[in-house]
Design a protein that fits this description.
The chain is an all-alpha fold. The protein contains 13 helices and no strands. The chain has two domains: 134 residues, Serine Threonine Protein Phosphatase 5, Tetratricopeptide repeat; 89 residues, Tetratricopeptide repeat domain (Serine Threonine Protein Phosphatase 5, Tetratricopeptide repeat, Alpha Horseshoe), CATH 1.25.40. 69% of the residues lie in helices and 0% in strands.
């Protein structure tokens, strides 16, 4: 199951002033600032402090504490935290996995226009995990997030157009969407666009361009792209 990575929200004005006026604050010091604001029930700070506990940046890594902070911010209706808490339930890291609960949280955030949550909820509707499988709904959600320039959603929507799932197959549209995501450095989109250039679907066939895109994806750790490059290299030996 592929879900988007956790995203931190923007800090409140006071924190921004502090962080911007002090040169290169340490991760520990930044966490202290977030803690002070979180103690005052600031939802943005609660979410961002939760992210730090999840990643271990400036504080000891503590998934339970991260979840607790995301919950506090989510209870205040903060969409970014709702999405992050949804991801915790979706992955089940350090807590019981609950895709139904994840879907509920993604829905709350998606209803507020959060692109990450729209993408994540779209993925659940595509796979039928935690919600009923509904490719039409998945397409709609991916489109909403893609329209906001969200790379993962652009790639996911492109994949549906490339395969004709939930939409009429349109390799040209798929190529456009993959290109938008690839331009943002999305490795999966770079690889997917490379496949279109390799086969000449939706774009003129161009082996050189395909290899270039596979290489970009491989450089970011995409194993599928790495495998393709190895096979191509073997063919050229």
């Amino acid at each position: 199951m592929r879900l988007i990575k956790v995203i931190a929200g923007g800090a409140m004005v006071v924190l921004l002033v502090i962080l911007l006026t002090r040169p290169h604050p340490s991760a520990r010091k930044a966490a202290e600032f977030y803690q002070k604001a979180a103690d005052q029930a600031n939802a943005v700070a609660q979410n961002n402090l939760g992210l730090r506990y999840e990643t271990g940046e400036g504080v000891p890594k503590d998934l339970g504490k991260a979840t607790e902070l995301y919950q506090k911010a989510a209870d205040q209706g903060y969409a970014v935290a709702q999405n992050n808490l949804g991801l915790r339930y979706a992955t089940g890291q350090g807590m019981p996995k609950d895709l139904g609960k994840a879907a509920e949280l993604f829905q709350k955030a998606a209803d507020q226009g959060n692109a990450g949550a729209q993408n994540n909820l779209g993925w659940l509707h595509e796979t039928g995990e935690g919600v009923s499988k509904d490719l039409g709904k998945a397409t709609e959600l991916f489109q909403k997030a893609a329209d906001q320039g969200y790379a993962d959603a652009q790639n996911n929507l492109g994949r549906l157009y490339a395969t004709g799932q939930g939409v009429s197959k349109d390799s040209g549209k798929a190529a456009e969407l993959f290109q938008k995501a690839a331009d943002q450095g999305n490795a999966v989109a770079q690889r997917n666009l490379g496949l279109l250039y390799a086969t000449g679907q939706g774009v003129p066939k161009d082996s050189g361009k395909a290899v270039e895109l596979f290489q970009k994806a491989a450089d970011q750790g995409d194993q599928f792209a790495t495998t393709i490059l190895k096979r191509l290299s073997g063919e050229n030996d």
